[in-house]
Design a protein that fits this description.
The complex is a heterodimer of chains A (about 375) and B (about 375).
Chain A: E1 8-13, H1 16-24, E2 33-36, E3 45-48, H2 50-53, H3 63-69, E4 74-76, H4 80-97, E5 101-105, E6 108-112, H5 123-138, E7 142-147, H6 150-157, E8 165-167, H7 173-178, H8 190-198, H9 206-209, H10 212-219, H11 223-230, E9 246-257, H12 260-280, E10 284-294, E11 299-310, H13 313-324, E12 334-345
Parallel strand pairs in A: 2-4, 7-8
Antiparallel strand pairs in A: 1-6, 1-7, 2-3, 5-6, 9-12, 10-11, 10-12
Chain B: E1 2-6, H1 7-18, E2 32-37, E3 42-47, E4 51-57, E5 61-64, E6 66-71, H2 72-80, E7 87-92, E8 97-102, E9 107-112, E10 130-134, H3 135-145, E11 160-166, E12 169-175, E13 179-186, E14 189-190, E15 197-200, H4 201-209, E16 217-222, E17 226-231, E18 234-239, E19 258-263, H5 264-275, E20 284-290, E21 293-300, E22 304-314, E23 319-324, H6 325-334, E24 339-344, E25 351-355, E26 362-369
Antiparallel strand pairs in B: 1-5, 1-7, 2-3, 2-6, 3-4, 4-18, 7-8, 8-9, 10-14, 10-16, 11-12, 11-15, 12-13, 13-26, 16-17, 17-18, 19-22, 19-24, 20-21, 20-23, 21-22, 24-25, 25-26
Helix pairs in contact in B: 1-2, 3-4, 5-6
Classes of the chains: A alpha+beta (about 375), B alpha+beta (about 375).
Chain lengths: ~375, ~375
């Protein structure tokens, strides 16, 4: 029996950096905005709002050129810390629905929602609710693609932007694929695309009929993958948190907090969030870091690395509290607090490492 | 600076320098080679701050003395493309540009250099106690232990081989925690006070690449901060690290009383062939010692299975060992004799290997390897 098809959602925030800026500063709403470096200092555009894109402004374009194309362009310096904060909220929503979240960047991810916390049987419903939750929490729009695999889901989310929702279901798969040019294929850049076009392969579906030799010349050893993709076949799993090296929670307070007692509750709730994240992934961490930003924006961090490695809320909280006494939080107003855990390992005491079949002659880490 | 010299000698030295020069470095000058011309010689220096190599060439004709640094890789690439018997002229122009000129082929190249004054100072080892032996003996030791040096970045104390004077011989040991290679060669003279010293992997590699007649004397000096190894017109320096090498003599088992004598090349061939069938990364093979024969076998669900029998003299109870094939191969590749002894205890204890007959110049060679769990 064939396994039931997977339900993969690809979510891509719309003009993420620029949208965050427009939301944070209402004066920018509806105006062409580019986030990027100074034109005078040869900066480049990191992101452009949809208003700016209409003038032909795109990311990676020198800011100076963007300003020439779009005279009313508002150029804003990027605030990466802010985007990270918003991204954390968005990913928090994703992870509340499924643990199988594979981030592709700060504003883009694959989600395997075959099983999901809402119990929604339809991928499209999950995507609709995700978009609504993101909008509700952040005021930002996202475009989503729903498909049985990653390749198709990513193509689908790019199909209609902004605020799009495109579903590629088995019955409209052929129609969808036949409309795509060959460059839509994963791994096909402009050079390969030109080579393929020269060989008469214009549409993605043309790849199916293309002679082996032609494909091999254009893309080398990946021609088999390419051919599978041209049929819409892609078995790559959604790999959660491939790059995660730390787990952290941060909170900026509405009004500055003063005194250790006032910080106790936020510290506990953040330790709890970090602990839940670790628990879900069966990870422990050797290092706990506390971040304190005072009212005047000076920021300090304190870290402690010790065994046993921690996973539970109480142990993380205990270390966080201990580090708090090494800051001036008792006497200075605090604007932001963050708790994070890194140095991941599989258990509280990582010394007995993954048992290797290779027997040791001696313990190389023992003191001589 | 202006001088001329044969392409072949420059090319050879630059080749040696490549092993030391940093390829990806944040200090651009460390990818350069320092050229210093005096009346009678050209001195070349390359360093990565841990290891330094210095070569002196005397077949040069100096017109004006001076010094400069140029990208080592680039210069080597250029010189390599010239006929070895040609003469080239090196001349420093303004702004540390170096002009390379050749008459046949008639060619002129200008490379961008950096000032010699920015180059790190050359380390010094002079004055410390020395150990002297022939290059042949030293290279032989290196060859016998080099493969057992640890590649794990965290194990700094195992990232080299320990060199230790022993009366009129010298001993070298390397271990990665799974195996130990220990060799002793004759004909070494050491001064009192020459304490055992860790020779880094990079230096071991450079030594094995040095080509000079085997009888060339090598003087190893244990300086205050560096060891210096001087071989003919070349000198290697390595930062002296205070790292405790494990007490390897303690781990050599005394209860390996089962002895098999096997044809070295026959066993090596069998291990190579059978390990091809091993599906996992460790390339595990099973070595079964039976009276009169040793059987090398492997089976994996993904690949398949196979075995090969090799005649051997063995008269004890049968023992099966699972070994990382590569670990065994590396010993068999460098053991000099036609036959080797393999000494066993049981399936979960170390296996010891050594040449079956005496080898001239080699006082002893012992290899200890731990098996894989059955």
């Amino acid at each position: 029996m064939e396994p039931a098809p997977r339900k993969i959602v690809h979510v891509d925030m719309d003009a993420f950096f620029a949208s965050v800026e427009q939301r944070d500063d209402p004066r920018l709403a509806g105006r062409p905005v580019a986030v990027g470096g100074d034109a005078a200092r040869r900066g480049v555009v990191a992101a452009a709002s949809y208003e700016a894109r209409r003038f032909g402004v795109f990311s990676a374009m020198p800011t100076a050129r963007a300003v020439r194309l779009c005279p009313g362009l508002v150029v804003v310096r990027p605030r990466f810390a802010r985007y990270k904060e918003v991204s954390a909220v968005v990913f928090g929503i994703f992870r509340s629905v499924t643990p199988l979240v594979e981030p592709l960047s700060i504003d883009e991810a694959f989600l395997d929602v075959t099983q999901n916390a809402w119990g929604e049987p339809l991928g499209v419903e999950v995507a609709r609710r995700l978009k609504a939750a993101v909008r509700e929490a952040t005021g930002l729009t996202a475009s989503a693609g729903v498909a049985p695999n990653k390749f198709l889901a990513k193509l689908a989310s790019g199909w209609r932007k902004p605020d799009g929702l495109t579903v590629v279901a088995p019955r409209n798969l052929e129609a969808f694929l036949s409309r795509l040019p060959v460059d839509a294929l994963w791994g096909v850049g402009p050079v390969t695309a030109r080579r393929l076009r020269d060989a008469g392969v214009h549409r993605l579906v043309d790849v199916r009929e293309a002679p082996e030799e032609t494909l091999r010349r254009a893309v080398g050893s990946s021609c088999e993958t390419l051919r599978r993709l041209s049929f819409g076949i892609d078995d790559r799993p959604v790999v959660p948190d491939r790059a995660s090296k730390s787990a952290g929670a941060e909170r900026t307070f509405d009004t500055d907090l003063t005194g250790v007692e006032a910080l106790e509750e936020p510290l506990r709730s953040m330790s709890g969030r970090v602990s839940a994240w670790l628990g879900k992934r069966r990870l422990f961490g050797r290092t706990v870091t506390l971040k304190v930003r005072y009212a005047d924006f000076t920021t300090v961090t304190r870290s402690v690395t010790e065994l046993p490695a921690v996973q539970d809320e109480a142990s993380i909280l205990e270390r966080a509290r201990r580090m708090l006494t090494r800051t001036e939080a008792a006497s200075r107003p605090v604007r932001l607090l963050g708790v994070s855990v890194h140095g991941f390992c599989d258990g509280p005491d990582p010394r007995p490492r993954r048992p290797s079949a290779q027997l040791a002659l001696f313990d190389p880490d023992a003191p001589p | 600076m202006e001088l001329s010299l044969p392409v072949s000698s420059l090319s050879k030295e630059l080749g040696l320098m490549q092993g030391v020069v940093e390829k990806r470095t944040t200090h651009q000058i460390l990818s350069n080679v320092l050229l210093e011309a005096t009346e009678a010689r050209l001195t070349l220096t390359a360093t990565d701050l841990d290891t330094t190599i210095v070569s002196e060439l005397t077949d040069v004709t100096t017109r004006t003395t001076g010094a400069v640094t140029v990208p080592a890789r680039r210069l080597h690439d250029v010189v390599r493309e010239l006929p070895p018997d040609a003469e080239i002229r090196l001349k420093v122009l303004e702004n540390h540009h170096v002009q390379i000129e050749c008459k046949d082929p008639k060619l002129r190249i200008r490379l961008n250099g950096l000032p010699a004054t920015d180059y790190p100072t050359r380390p010094e080892a002079a004055g410390g106690p020395t150990l002297t032996l022939s290059l042949g003996a030293l290279k032989r030791m290196v060859e016998k232990v080099r493969f057992a040096v640890s590649v794990e970045e965290m194990r700094l104390q195992l990232q080299g081989a320990l060199l230790k004077p022993k009366g009129d011989s010298a001993e070298m040991a390397a271990t990665d925690g799974h195996r130990l290679a220990l060799v002793e060669v004759e004909g070494a003279v050491s001064e009192p006070g020459f304490e055992p010293v860790l020779v880094s992997r990079k230096v071991l590699e450079e030594l094995s690449r040095l080509d000079a007649p085997p009888e060339t004397p090598v003087t190893i000096t244990r300086g205050a901060n560096h060891i210096g190894i001087s071989v003919g017109s070349r000198r290697l320096f390595s930062k002296l690290e205070d790292r405790r090498f494990p007490d390897y003599e303690k781990v050599i088992g005394k209860e390996n009383d089962k002895r098999a004598v096997v044809d070295r090349e026959a066993l090596l061939g069998a291990v190579r062939r059978i390990s091809l069938l091993s599906g996992d990364r460790t390339k595990a093979v099973t070595i079964s010692f039976r009276p009169g024969a040793v059987v090398v076998s492997s089976e994996s669900q993904e690949v398949g299975e196979g075995d090969q029998e090799v005649a051997c003299s063995y008269a004890n109870d049968p023992v099966n060992l699972r070994l990382n094939a590569r670990y065994l191969e590396q010993f068999l590749e460098v053991a000099d004799t036609n036959q080797v002894d393999l000494l066993l205890k049981d399936e979960s204890s170390q296996c010891q290997g050594r040449p079956s007959e005496a080898v001239p110049g080699l006082k002893s060679y012992l290899y200890v390897v731990m098996p894989l769990r059955m």
